[in-house]
Each structure stands twice: as structure tokens, then as C-alpha cells.
Hints:
The structure holds two protein chains of two kinds.
Chain A: E1 5-14, E2 21-31, E3 36-40, H1 47-54, E4 62-67, E5 70-71, H2 77-87, E6 88-92, H3 103-113, H4 118-131, H5 147-159, E7 165-169, H6 177-191, E8 196-200, H7 204-207, E9 212-217, E10 220-224, H8 231-236
Parallel strand pairs in A: 3-8, 3-9, 6-7, 7-8
Antiparallel strand pairs in A: 1-2, 1-4, 4-5, 9-10
Helix pairs in contact in A: 3-4, 3-5, 4-5, 5-6
Chain B: H1 3-11, E1 16-17, H2 18-28, H3 37-49, E2 53-58, E3 64-68, H4 70-81, H5 93-103, H6 109-133, H7 139-167
Helix pairs in contact in B: 2-3, 5-6, 6-7
Amino acid sequence: MTYALELRQVSKVYGSGPSEVQALSRVDLSVERDELVAVMGPSGSGKSTLLTIAGSLEEASSGQVVVDGTDLATVSRTDRAKMRRRSIGYVFQDFNLLPGLKAIENVTLPLELDGLSSKTARVAALEAMEELDVADRADHYPDELSGGQRQRVAIARAIVGERALLLADEPTGALDSVNGESVMRLLRAATHRGVAGVVVTHEAQLASWADRVVFLRDGHVVDQTAAPPGPESLLAAGDRR
Amino acid sequence: MSVPHALLALLREGPKYGLRLQSEFESRTGEVWPLNIGQVYSTLQRLERDRLVEAAGEGERSQKQYRITSAGAQELDDWLRTPPDLIPPPRDELVIKVLVALQVPGTDVHEILQVHRRHVIEVMQRYTQVKASAREDDVALALVADAELFRLEGIVRWLDAADVRLKQLPTTAPAPAVDTPLERTRTMEVSQ
């Protein structure tokens, strides 16, 4: 089976000597396309480090990171940058939209940086924004959008084009619970259309939107949930009177 | 779930037969609380005895139609505004398991906490699936699932807090087992 993301025995160490910090320790994690995985753990457990290494924003100290079948250690820095633009989408807690660009320009940016004509990029961006129900806000600037709309634009930017992997770091942290749920619904829908998703969150309720929840502690994967049975099992277990 | 009050609420909309009350009860509670027809009729009989509902006529096959009385409407209004009992005695089974785990030599309490955390989140995933597969306009089901999800999330947060609190404790050897008279157990009382 080809996974969209594979971490094999990945470790990350910051500093050296007495100030050495082991952020990740021999982590194995494989995520298929169509699968949304949530990573939970206390502060300092290595969640965000895992995400930045998976997204090739920083390098592992040891181990292998394979994205869409390509071992990141075997490609040049330039090709890694290209891969980050083409294959990996990022969603951050603070949206990270460029304030001087309109919503649609934020979405087309990674495509245009990758060499697509602005016309082709605009068509793809509008399609992604329609999926996320923000196409009517395309020509507004980020500060003219609500928090929920900004995050939808950020997700559109993350899924536009042919992405294999969607990475989200506390993507609902700046939103209320109903808007947060709506973002998780969208991330789940996006992954179920053929992308692998990894979401870091400390909120159990948001993690429960994932197909699988992985628990990190002190840089180690200590546990994960089993595939959930269908909802009918829950209703059947209800109080039948 | 108070079945009598749920039936009073449905009758507040107008007179209804038992079968209709049964189907409306189930659909409006997101079909999470199934209700059999025998329970509907026995509840209606009790409500009629207490003069909270009364017969409004008979339909085909001698089916009896019920309507709410003014005393029933008052009872419903009072019930809606009465807060539920939120202060049960602190005898939660999970809390007791964790407290006992602290006393059992050789037990990794953090591992025990994780076993329960995983289980609770797996249950949460099932409730979330209920929401995810429901129609978008099924507000009743969303509210029922939300109520369970927030309750379960509270348990996960308690487990997380217990994890951090126990990590901050200095590691100490378990106290030697000495057969000394026990002090009176501390109790926790919450004033209402």
C-alpha cells in the first residue's frame, strides 16, 4: 500500500549536551489518502514538531519521512520546496493569510508560484472556494472576513491543486465551537475526497472528527484509537424502553 | 429524560393520539431515546389521573385523543425552569478507579489514564459520526449528540488535568503497610 505520508522511526533532537531536548523519539506514523488522523498530546509532547517534519518545514534528526512515495532525504532542497508547494497544504491556527492580498489571491498564490498562469490558477482557486462555500467572498480582503470565513479561505489555499497531504496545526483554535466543528467537517470532507490529513489539536471534541486519533507523550506515540464502528452501534446501545 | 414532560410538551401544540405522540417523541429527540407505545399509554393514563391531560375525543378504532389541561401547562412551565440536579455525590466510577490505581503498587497511573482517555475518545468518535451522517437540518439530533460530546470532553479534560497534576508530584515510595487506626475519611460537601 502507498501511503501519502509515512514517518519511519523519526526522531528529532534540539540542542546538544545538557540542553538537549528530545522532541520526537522513533515515531512511526502512516496516513493513507482518504484518511484524517488527529494527533493529540499535552503541551511539549511533540505534536507540532511532528507536523513541521511531516510538512518538510524542518528536518528530522534521524529516520525517514516519505511524502506521496518520495523520501524527502533523497531530493534536493529546491525539489523539497517544490513538493511543499505542490503536494502539501498547510492550515494554521491564525489562518496566516496575507493581509494585502484578496481572498482569491491568497488561494491562487501557491499555484502561481508553481508556474501556473493566473487565469488557470483563478479557475482552480474559485473551484476550491466554492467547495468551501466562500466563493462569494473571493474579492474581499482578509480583514473583511469573519474568523470562520478566513479559515475556509485558508483551507481552500491548502487543498487547491493536486495536494496529497493536508496538515493542520490547531486549525480551530481561534474559532468558537460551532465554527470549529464546521472547519473539522470541511477538513474531513477534503480528506475523504482523496487527500491524507493530519490535524494537531488538544481538543478531544475536534479530534473525534478524525478517522483515527494518535496520542503522543514525551515525543513517543503511546496509543491510538481503533477504527470506530458505525453510528448505528451507538443508537442500538441506547436505552430501549 | 422525563417522558411525562416530553409528552406534555408535544400536547402543548394541540390534541394528539398516542401513536402520533410516540413517533413525534422519537423524531424530536434525534431517535436516540426510543419509546414503546405501551409506555406512552401508561404515561398518558398517569397524566390523566393527575389531571394534567384529558380526553379530547375518540378517533377511528376507538383511539383516544389527548389534550393538555391548564394544570398540565403549568406543570410543564415549572419543569422547564427547574434546574436539574447538578451536584451528585463525588462517587464517579472513573475517579474511584484512578484513586485506587494510585494506591496499587507497580501500577502506571498514566497508562491507566490513557486507557480511559482512548476509550472516551472512541465513544466521542461514534457520536461525531452520528452528527456527520445526520441531515444538516436535524437540530434535535445535533443537540443530543453535542450534549454527550461536551459531557465526554469534560471527562477527557479531567483525565488530562489528572495526568499533569500527577506528573508534577515528586516521586515517592509507597507508604509502608502499617496496621494503624484509620483517620476518618475526608468527605467533600458542596453547598447548594
